Amino acid sequence: MQFENSREFAKKLDEQDPLKSYRDQFLFPKVNNKQVIYFTGNSLGLQPKNTKKYVDEVMKDWAELAVEGHFYADKPWWDYHERMAKPLSKIVGAKPSEITVMNTLTVNLHLLMVSFYRPKGKRYKIICEEKAFPSDQYMLQSQVRFHGYDPNDAIVEIKKRKDEHNFRIEDILSTIQSVGEECALILIGGVNYYTGQVFDMKTITKAGHDIGAFVGWDLAHGAGNIELNLHDWDVDFASWCSYKYMNSGPGNASGCFIHERFHDKTNIPRFEGWWGTKRESRFLMKPEFEPMPNADAWQLSNAPILSLAPYLASLELFDEVGMEALIKKRNIIVAYLEFVLKEIDAEVDSTFEIITPSSQEERGTQLSVFLHGEGRKLFDYLMKNGVITDWREPNVIRLAPAPFYCSYEDMYEFGQILKQGILDKNSK
């Protein structure tokens, strides 16, 4: 497609957008009484308007039914979380039986480590990417210490090459081969939070299995953003938060994928709780744990219904639209944003360096941009002028135009505000 950096062209793209009506189904903050340009769906997605209805329904049932809401609410609470398995399975490429929703992301990763980090003898090392999101780093360090190992020895980081922003698949595979039989687990963020690079999860998972290791993925920046086929890729486990691209609200519940080959086993190591027992006998209060024959066996506690309600509301929208349509728009709007950035770059003294890979196979909704010659003042200018974006030291902004609610005109308008912010600084 031949892009143009004009408001008329952007409006034309919006008119042709099959998803244009969904923008009106989200609530936008305002700055100076004007709806913001929102680029931080990779941190916290906007609130869908249907969220209030789902939450109000739970509040009404609680008020009118109290404890009986567990069984007699319109959506009974005792199996509320089970409603999420089918729509989530379509988003992450799994079977519904391989999906459960519980707790929050880092809690779930710790719980999954019980099952999938089982160091023994010389096989005790964990492979991850360097400078992983801090929660993952802290989680892995505490896990290896818990098992009696030194993180400096037990954790092997895949490195980027000098002066390169992204990881090379050949270097990842070489690291896996070099650790070999010492590797117990590979756990990587499926989409790098800083650069937006998408990893070749299928190839890496196979390489990990070939050396006898378990392979899991942190999909905080992947779920609801990129195409995933966790079951077909033979991934052992994965977990993700729901509040970024899936718009479920701050700090909300986390989804888990556990491959079906680990289901219906009584001898697999895991921490267990009442809600993981078979639903048919759960209220018989048996002293023995009888696991659910699916991913729900990893459940521990009564589901947090008020947290799950916004997630279910958002999944309704995903089910209507489907990942194929979201990804199709994502590819176009990110490409248009990239075009706008390059056009503005040619008009100002500053230099923008996009450090996210240029190929669609290696990126999702996010573009990370080095603003060479600029500092925090430009970010502050953007925020004061209604562009909600994300700043990372030393001078990187992360731009994530979520296809559900971002428009092509937003991309054009952002370019104009960015240009004016640089020109204003240089004129002083």
TrEMBL record:
Enzyme class: hydrolase
Family: Belongs to the kynureninase family.
Functional pathway: Cofactor biosynthesis; NAD(+) biosynthesis; quinolinate from L-kynurenine: step 2/3; Amino-acid degradation; L-kynurenine degradation; L-alanine and anthranilate from L-kynurenine: step 1/1
Residues binding pyridoxal 5'-phosphate, per UniProt: 105-106, 133-136, 218, 221, 243, 274, 302
Ranges that cross the membrane: none
Cofactor(s) needed for function: pyridoxal 5'-phosphate
NCBIfam families: kynureninase
HAMAP family: Kynureninase
UniProt GO molecular function: kynureninase activity
Any Pfam family the entry gives: KYNU_C
Protein's UniProt name: Kynureninase
Modified residues (N6-(pyridoxal phosphate)lysine): 244
Assembly behavior: Homodimer.
Gene: kynU
Classification of source organism: Bacteria, Pseudomonadati, Bacteroidota, Flavobacteriia, Flavobacteriales
Organism of provenance: Aquimarina rubra
Keywords for this protein: Hydrolase, Pyridine nucleotide biosynthesis, Pyridoxal phosphate
Listed EC numbers: 3.7.1.3
InterPro entries: Kynureninase, PyrdxlP-dep_Trfase, PyrdxlP-dep_Trfase_major, PyrdxlP-dep_Trfase_small
Function: Catalyzes the cleavage of L-kynurenine (L-Kyn) and L-3-hydroxykynurenine (L-3OHKyn) into anthranilic acid (AA) and 3-hydroxyanthranilic acid (3-OHAA), respectively.
Reactions performed catalytically: 3-hydroxy-L-kynurenine + H2O = 3-hydroxyanthranilate + L-alanine + H(+); L-kynurenine + H2O = anthranilate + L-alanine + H(+)
